[in-house]
């Protein structure tokens, strides 16, 4: 029995039990994972990462991309935010409401639109605050089109999954904290261009899982201002 206990202690020293999230406070990709964990009511240890001086744990856990977020489940890493959200949903089926719909077609649609968010929103938003002149005007036009396309996917639903807050809501909602930054650099209003999307963002903000894990839009705007300075963009 004593030997068993020693072996167990050795195993514990090698890999931490439970859930740990390697993340960076303002990352919309990390926030997806935090919202999913909160929706499922799962306790986890949050490990803030210094992205200018990456930790040994981060480099070891995600040797391919060397990026946050990374979810460690009993020491085993899961990388890429949408994959992490799906993993959380599948690995803890008895916890909270499912994030992905049960119907295979609805599930495929949710994944398609989450992939669209991934490919379009962050990149276009970055161009909005990094570029000037004609290139910035092009990014503004694209961002409005992207948001209108997503508003079309939302339709008249309360959430992207209909009545239930689900996978696509989790994937997209962190970017609502960036809307203010996009509006200021792009000189447009989400509420005027996409009123249903703006209303959806307000509904999501009332959820505890979202309210606790998103930072105020002004704080995101300040962060972007700091990034511009560091990158020498004026």
Characteristic key phrases:
234 residues, alpha+beta, single chain, Glutathione S-transferase Yfyf (Class Pi), Chain A, domain 2, Glutaredoxin, 4-stranded mixed β-sheet, 4 strands, 2 domains, globular
Beta percentage is 5-15%
Q: What is the number of beta strands?
A: 4
Total domain count: 2
Helix-residue proportion: 55-70%
Q: Catalogue the unreliable spans.
A: 5-14
Assign the CATH architecture of the largest domain.
Up-down Bundle
Q: Would you give the CATH topology of the largest domain?
A: Glutathione S-transferase Yfyf (Class Pi), Chain A, domain 2
Work out the oligomeric state of the chains in this entry: single chain
Strand line-up of the largest beta sheet: 2-1-3-4
SSE order, one letter for each helix or strand: HEHEHEEHHHHHHHHH
What is the rounded distance between the termini?
A: 66 Å
Description:
The longest helix is centred in the middle third of the chain and has 27 residues. About 4% of the residues have low confidence. The protein has a four-stranded mixed sheet, with helices on one face. Helix 2 runs parallel beside helix 4 and helix 5 runs antiparallel to helix 6. The chain is α+β, with helices and mostly antiparallel strands. It folds into two domains: 90 residues, Glutaredoxin (3-Layer(aba) Sandwich), CATH 3.40.30.10; 128 residues, Up-down Bundle (Glutathione S-transferase Yfyf (Class Pi), Chain A, domain 2). The chain has twelve helices and four strands.
């Amino acid at each position: 029995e004593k030997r068993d206990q020693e072996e167990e202690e050795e195993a514990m020293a090698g890999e931490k039990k439970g859930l740990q999230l390697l993340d960076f406070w303002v990352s919309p990709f990390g926030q997806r994972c935090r919202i999913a964990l909160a929706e499922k009511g799962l306790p986890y240890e949050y490990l803030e990462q210094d992205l200018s001086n990456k930790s040994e744990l981060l480099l070891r856990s995600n040797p391919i991309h060397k990026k946050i977020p990374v979810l460690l489940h009993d020491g085993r890493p899961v990388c890429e935010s949408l994959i992490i959200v799906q993993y959380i949903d599948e690995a803890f089926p008895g916890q909270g409401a499912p994030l992905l719909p049960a119907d295979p077609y609805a599930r495929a649609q949710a994944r398609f639109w989450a992939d669209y968010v991934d490919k379009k929103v962050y990149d276009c938003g970055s161009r909005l605050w990094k570029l000037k002149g004609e290139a910035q005007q092009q990014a503004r036009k694209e961002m409005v089109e992207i948001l209108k396309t997503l508003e079309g996917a939302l339709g008249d639903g309360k959430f992207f999954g209909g009545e239930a807050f689900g996978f696509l809501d989790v994937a997209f909602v962190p970017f609502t904290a960036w809307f203010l930054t996009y509006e200021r650099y792009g000189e447009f209003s989400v509420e005027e261009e996409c009123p249903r999307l703006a209303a959806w963002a307000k509904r999501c903000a009332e959820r505890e899982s979202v309210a606790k894990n998103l930072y105020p839009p002004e704080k995101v705007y300040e962060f972007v201002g700091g990034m511009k300075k560091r990158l020498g963009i004026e």
